[in-house]
Amino acid sequence: MSHDGPFYQRDRDWHSPAFTPGYKTSILRSPQRALLSIENTLSEMTGPVFGRDILGPRDNDLITNFGGTGEAIGQRLIVYGRVLDENGRGLPGVLVEFWQANAGGRYRHHKEGYRAALDPNFGGCGRAITDQDGGYHFRTIKPGAYPWPNRVNDWRPAHIHFSIFGEAFAQRLITQMYFEGDPMIWQCPIVGTIPSREAIETLVAALDRQATTHMDALAYKFDIVLRGRRQTMFENKLEGH
Amino acid sequence: MVQPLKRRKESPSQTAGPYVHIGTNPNWVEITGVWQGDLGLDLVAPEAKGERILVKGRVFDGADQPLTDALIEIWQADAAGLYNSPQDKRGQADPHFVGWGRQPTDARTGEFRFETLKPGRVPFPDGRLMAPHITVWVVARGINIGLHTRLYFGDEEKANAEDPVLLRIEHRARVKTLVAPRSEEQGLPCYTFDIHLQGPDETVFFDI
Ligand SMILES: [Fe+3]
């Protein structure tokens, strides 16, 4: 039984709608017309593949990949997990990119307006390619919460941004990871664009005390689920396939 | 109660935010030295077969202001209509053409720009040929889930008229939002694809 048919329809009620006025920037950036629904074509069922040759040895170590010799300041973390599809199959060879603020909550970016100090040894980006089981891991420091211009006193909970490719362009996804037990998750207008608590909880990484490294790093487990494909065994095969 | 269907739910999308380029184009935002060169800037190797073209455009918000903090990705077939992906089982695509590109919109003008190839035609599931097209994906601050659309070519009137996807658009006046007019720049055909997130010219976005 192979899952190589079209992708399951995306559940638009599970995802945030486009227009979410509590997140003010969405007001003028949200399409208002109905999306055009089309069945998957080869244009969506294919996607780019990245070879391991693009990776440097420290691409998945945000503690050291920016500083020349120094290490980033902050609570040291291992973040690990798997990239799966909706059928529960691990997706190998998938490029995962991540970026985050430093331990004080500040991004290394010219548009950043928060007063927290820059860390000279922290750039804030990393990437990995999943292994045979869809596994990935990286080392970083825990990002700080930060204020942002929305309502006057809105703060983002600590989070890491993720960009994931999958095997096909239909699976392309950008999302964010949050940390277990953080009360600020439930106060955030960007988190709040997601309609259900159940869906939000799938973005909260679990503290995993069994995966910590001795006198070094805490560990959080974060699995990412991409769209799955239908099995083709009962599908009518059309000519030209 | 009934037996449960054991399927997982897709991870909910979250906005790429204002600092997406730290993760996707770190060198462009002056985070240099982590890795050499940002991905997706060069699509075409000198040996690649096909007609060289430029694709450019801007992304406008509901107040007609161009987004200066967006990220655009494109995905397309090679000149023979094959995708450079293991998921395309029809044949071997041109190894000198990646087919995937990624560019930030310019921090001042909001313009994005790709040097690529004119793609060949790819079949729709029922076997009819689609018109040449490029898949375009837009993410930015304020966009909660990435927007999929397609660029079709202004000089492919005949193929566009029979394209199975364009034929699905009920409001025919909106077809033109997917068709990029052709001009010339640097001696190359240049197709301008402006994307409107809202308003009377709102681009047709896809649920695929
Ligand atoms: Fe952030």
Automatic annotation (TrEMBL), chain A:
Gene3D superfamilies referenced in this protein's UniProt entry, alphabetically: Aromatic compound dioxygenase
Pfam families, alphabetized: Dioxygenase_C, PCDO_beta_N
The UniProt record lists the keyword Magnesium: no
GO BP terms: 3,4-dihydroxybenzoate catabolic process
Enzyme class label: oxidoreductase
Domain Intradiol ring-cleavage dioxygenases: 79-107
EC code: 1.13.11.3
Keyword entries, A-Z: Dioxygenase, Oxidoreductase
GO molecular function: ferric iron binding; protocatechuate 3,4-dioxygenase activity
Family, as annotated: Belongs to the intradiol ring-cleavage dioxygenase family.
Name of this protein: Protocatechuate 3,4-dioxygenase subunit beta
Organism (species): Lichenifustis flavocetrariae
Gene that specifies this protein: pcaH
Automatic annotation (TrEMBL), chain B:
InterPro entries registered for this protein in UniProt: Intradiol_dOase_C, Intradiol_dOase_core, Intradiol_RC_Dioxygenase, Protocat_dOase_a
Superkingdom, taxonomy of origin: Bacteria
Domain Intradiol ring-cleavage dioxygenases stretches: 46-199
EC number: 1.13.11.3
Gene Ontology MF annotations: ferric iron binding; protocatechuate 3,4-dioxygenase activity
Keywords, ordered alphabetically: Dioxygenase, Oxidoreductase
PANTHER family in the record: DIOXYGENASE, PUTATIVE (AFU_ORTHOLOGUE AFUA_2G02910)-RELATED, PROTOCATECHUATE 3,4-DIOXYGENASE ALPHA CHAIN
NCBIfam families attached to this UniProt entry: protocat_alph
Family from the record: Belongs to the intradiol ring-cleavage dioxygenase family.
Protein name, as recorded: Protocatechuate 3,4-dioxygenase subunit alpha
Organism: Lichenifustis flavocetrariae
Phylogenetic placement of the source organism: Bacteria, Pseudomonadati, Pseudomonadota, Alphaproteobacteria, Hyphomicrobiales
